[in-house]
Amino acid sequence: MEGMLMRFKQNQIERARRKVFGVAMPTIANTFFVVLNNGLNTIVEENGDILITLIANYDQELQNAQVQKFIDEKVDFIFIIPVDSETVKPALEASREAGIPVINIDTPVYDKELVLSIISSDNYKIGTLIGLDLIQRLNSAKIVIIDFPESVSTTNRVNGFMDIIKDKPQYEVVEILPGDTQYLNSKKAMESVIDSGIEFNVVMAVNDLSAFGAMDALDEAGINSGILIYGVDGSPEAKRLIAQGKMTASVAQSPNELGMYSAEMAYVYLEGKPISDRIFIPVYLIDQQNVYDYGLISWN
């Protein structure tokens, strides 16, 4: 009996020593975020700690409430990928007031002073890589952009792209429409462009799901050749489409590395060591020339 009591007390002590991390995700409809979450969880579990994941389903008010739930539960650390880079501010302010450190992953917030660090891909570079690839392939272009202006990360991608083609009038953006980084909304946006009769020969989508929506709209309209399609993420499905010649290119991110590195930096901070307030994870363009170097099955 005494031995059982001692083991019970020891288990209580071990549980009390475990750190609890909360991650506020915008969605898991995009497997990018599923893989990112797995990366976080890999490092947290390796350290014997706990990761709690809450999904906002693209609702910033809900995400703010979820962060408050983390605060009420007195978690040790919060990771956040905001739905909206601006209106996430109340959640960040509440976290700071509660003394809980926050690492902002993937989609940068506007109020950078409210987070410990922003860890993301270099989204501006993503846009420049697409722009540079385009001008190597075509001497002129009429371009449709499927955008998501509420997000800093996607806005930076568009800005990088636009800076490459500025002062080059032969590369004309004929339409910019919101696709909200979602398949169905992007498909509807592309359908509206097709119905309008606007001439175009390039689609630059801010993520792969948006590119897939645009591609399916084009296929259903019988426009399945002569259009360059660019996406962002380097998802397994995008790589398969690139290999088949149905998609031009995708600038690859590494969600697993993004998650693992963010968790590692959280532990560095919790050990009392400083971390950089801005960290970029490398990105690279995948096309038919190199797609098999990266494999068609996984996000690697």
- Tally of DSSP helical segments: 10
CATH architecture of the largest domain: 3-Layer(aba) Sandwich
Describe the biggest sheet?
6 strands, parallel
Strand content: 15-25%
Uncertain spans: 3-14
Can you describe what's shown?
With 300 residues, the chain is an alpha/beta fold. The protein has helices at residues 2-17, 31-46, 60-72, 89-98, 123-137, 152-165, 183-196, 208-220, 236-243, 255-270, and strands at residues 20-25, 50-55, 77-80, 102-105, 117-121, 141-147, 171-178, 202-205, 228-233, 249-252, 278-281, 284-286. It folds into two domains: 2-120 and 255-281, 3-Layer(aba) Sandwich (Rossmann fold); 123-253 and 287-293, Response regulator (Rossmann fold), CATH 3.40.50. It has ten helices and twelve strands. The strands form two sheets. It has a six-stranded parallel β-sheet, sandwiched between helices. A six-stranded mixed β-sheet has the order 7-6-8-9-10-12, sandwiched between helices. Strand 6, helix 6 (152-165) and strand 7 (171-178) form a beta-alpha-beta unit. Helix 5 packs parallel to helix 6 (152-165) and helix 7 packs across helix 8. The chain is elongated, with a radius of gyration of 21 Å.
